[in-house]
Amino acid sequence: MSDLRMWLKFATQNTLRNRRRSLVTVSIAALGTAAILLAGGFALSTYEALAQAAARTTGHLILGTPEQFARDEDTPLQYGLDGVAALRAQLLADQAVRQVLPRVEFSGLISNGDKSTVMMATGVEPDSEFAVKGPFLTITAGHVLASGSQDAEIMLGEGLARSLKATPGSSLTLLASTTEGAMNALDVRVKGIFSTGVPDIDKRLVYTDIATAQKLLVTQRVTSLGVFLDRMESTGPAQQRLAAQFPQLAVQSWTDQAFFYRSVRALYNRIFGALGLIIGVIVVFVVTNAMAMAIIERTREIGTLRALGTLPSQLLRTLALEGMVLGGVGALAGAALSLGISLLLYVVPVNMPPPPGRSVGYPLNISIDPLLYAATLAAMVLLTMLASSWVARKTVHLPVVDALAHT
Amino acid sequence: MNALHHPVVALHGVYKTYRLGQHVVPALQGVDLSVQRGELLALTGPSGSGKSTLLNLCGLIDTPDSGEIVLSGQPVGALNENQRTLLRRDALGFVFQSFNLVPVMTVAENVDYPLFLVGVPLAERRERVAAQLAAVGLQDHAQHRPDALSGGQRQRVAIARALIKRPRLVIADEPTASLDSHTADQVLDLMRERGHAEGAAFVIATHDSRLTRRCDRVLALLDGRIQ
Fold first, then answer.
1. Number of folded domains in chain B?
2. Sign (positive/negative) of CA torsion A166, A172, A177, A179?
């Protein structure tokens, strides 16, 4: 232990020989580390936000018939769920289940009498849906749906409302194919107009209550049940439990249905992985260059130490420690910088512009993930140690007389 | 017969050549040499006569083309680089013309370094470093860096570093060349006094006639041969 302390002290003293060069090296290692941690923290924050949004949209788990997830329907709700009330009661008995929301998803036409257009509709239990999911829609006019309404009511996406010149209180007609394959029409009243933040969705989406949807489709079935759990971490165990409890049904997790989440994660992993690799290479080059200069300048001294009886492996170790000190100090400074910026963003929020395909921005958050910090710091230290060892290996193995004669 | 009865270092029929481009330059041509315990041996000769080569071979930092080198009765020809390094660590001290102190280490750390390499416990190292620095008159400079010392003081640190581990042999290459005459005298006295006190033999390459006059034996080299 005292040996290591002595070598470490020697290595640290050596880094202070050329303070300007060491400062530049440490600064680049710090900036590299900060860049990796900020980019990684941004990616993690994005994953977390998308995961929460995806789970909030569908439920942490989605129950349906196996065919519902595997095959295309010939008629609406061909593979829908029956006996929903009993199923909900059984599900709600599970300790981790907070709410179970039935959903009827269908498509059809919506008309104002003069103009008809395609709609994608979702039948929900309004009170439960909005209570569980929170403010997931921005109401731009009118009100949200309420359970138990006597009238058949709908909420329209902003773009669809504009297309049909509909406002709250307008009467529209929904047309859809029933479960028997016949066409059915139902007059509805517009209760509210909303925006999801995605213009393409707002041009098509309609919300209505389950009863209205089932009346239009002439069925008592629902498409699926969204199961909302007490927390994200309960998803895996609850999925296993429910799959065992309901072997006749398919239990999917939110990730199975979150295509957008998976796509963004795959894209960001590649982008930030490549960024991290480039930054790592830059840091390694800088440390390698600094150590190469330091070692060349000290070739004669290395010869002296070898003459005094220092083994090449001992010199290699102290030079690796020297790289570790440079990389380690830089990495710690970078981690501190990243931490400071991440915390500052909570105090002084910065809003990002809307991403492509969306109409609203989002707050810039940087996750502070201990594992990411530990892995980045460890990688920086390891890389700089390896880089130093690599450039030192030739000099420490020079014949002693050659090293001593070096000018 | 234990190591005390052998010559500290003995060279038998040693040849060494260097290649300079297309030319092969003979540096040593059949040198035989034996240095006894506690002896101060001066090697003299003009530049290119082979003094430094002979020192390097005695100090195990170079290898001969042919011939045999025996250190305290142990032939070293078959040793690999690590074994030679460990033998240098344990048995040899070096004093260089330009001191070759480690600039980032204090005087005490420079002197301590060979003991650290050998693995002497810290408490003992502190005692021995303090004693050695007192012996060379630098006890008040223990925490100074080499660049804060004069040339003579630096060479005294180098001698303290060479002798701290009580080596059998000290290799000194022009140890007074960078010093004024007064300081050179002091360094010579110190080497002689400390060498005798520690029982170390010295092989000294030098042009300095004041130094050779005070050595036990003087060998003159010319064209790689002892005259």
1. 1
2. positive
